[in-house]
Q: What sequence folds into this?
């Protein structure tokens, strides 16, 4: 299929945004947030594209946790095809290797919203549970597949009771998806989204020792293809009249499922939908794919506005608050 054409009508980043009591120019954000690449699309047209630190339009940028939203869109397609019967099914209905474990007993619905109730810490200090998960998956310290989540066996809360950001929840979703479809996540993505949406370049996904994708992380693509994915979501999963991801699923995934997932209620700057962050604002529906070290795809469906940012920040991602302020500046200027 032909690539989804993205016309270019370049505009300077000459607007301003407010952050921590100071006023900055849009261009300041590139340096302030350790940006490697930035792309803004309005109504399908690129209005700004910038590359820094030797990056260029053919560079493949790691998604980190932006991959989580990719996984959930595939889950929606699998449900529409009847491969996953219901999000109220337990994970072990699809992954027998999880039988007899808390993760196996967790309904898919609560994996989607990071509310599995399994004890799990993700603080990026090097001795937390995500470090264990990384070692067992991308570090190939286990046989892969269900073995990557084997250490997480203590249930602290009932499923759905509270939000706790846990990459292991996404890893289990990936195992469910792989089992339900019978094909690797990368192949399913290629067939169902990447080729139909007209990506211009191949993408890749890190695998564990058993050949399973590291579902919570480590998908790699070009800046423009991340932007195409953002535009697809801005269009509620449709392109040129073709429904690629079910519209009802995209809307459900990008809306808090209950008040406890609203912005301000999750213990984080954003709210949460299905493996997707809900932008904290009083505006129309806005949401974001978010990845460690400063990777974002911000989406405003009403304005058909998308901002993609890839960065090389520190593990704590000190630039996340300023990128949100930049996004508000883009909405108020470019989005008019």
A:
């Amino acid at each position: 299929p032909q690539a989804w054409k993205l016309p270019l009508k370049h505009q300077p980043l000459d607007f301003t945004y407010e952050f921590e009591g100071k006023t900055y120019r849009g261009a300041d954000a590139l340096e302030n947030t350790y940006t490697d690449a930035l792309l803004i699309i309005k109504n399908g047209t690129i209005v700004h594209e910038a590359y820094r630190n030797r990056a260029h339009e053919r560079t493949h940028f790691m998604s980190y946790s932006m991959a989580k939203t990719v996984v959930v869109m595939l889950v929606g397609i699998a449900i529409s095809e009847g491969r996953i019967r219901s999000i109220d099914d337990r994970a072990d209905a699809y992954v027998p290797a999880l039988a007899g474990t808390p993760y196996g007993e967790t309904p898919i619905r609560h994996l989607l919203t990071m509310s599995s109730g399994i004890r799990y810490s993700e603080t990026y200090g090097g001795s937390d549970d995500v470090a264990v998960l990384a070692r067992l998956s991308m570090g190939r310290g286990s046989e892969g597949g269900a073995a990557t989540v084997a250490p997480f066996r203590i249930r602290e809360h009932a499923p759905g009771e509270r939000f706790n950001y846990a990459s292991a929840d996404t890893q289990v979703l990936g195992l469910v998806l792989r089992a339900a479809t019978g094909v690797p996540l990368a192949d399913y993505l290629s067939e169902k989204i990447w080729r139909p949406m007209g990506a211009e370049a191949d993408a890749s996904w890190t695998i564990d020792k058993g050949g399973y994708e590291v579902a919570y992380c480590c998908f790699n693509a070009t800046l423009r293809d991340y932007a195409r994915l953002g535009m697809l979501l801005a269009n509620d999963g449709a392109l040129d009249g073709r429904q690629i991801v079910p519209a009802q699923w995209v809307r459900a995934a990008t809306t808090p499922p209950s008040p406890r997932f609203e912005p301000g209620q999750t213990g984080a700057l954003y709210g949460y939908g299905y493996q997707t962050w809900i932008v904290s604002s009083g505006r129309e529906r806005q949401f974001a794919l978010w990845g460690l070290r400063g990777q974002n795809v911000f989406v405003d469906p009403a304005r058909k506005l998308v901002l993609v940012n890839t960065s090389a920040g520190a593990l704590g991602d000190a630039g996340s608050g300023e990128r949100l302020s930049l996004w508000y500046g883009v909405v108020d200027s470019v989005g008019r």
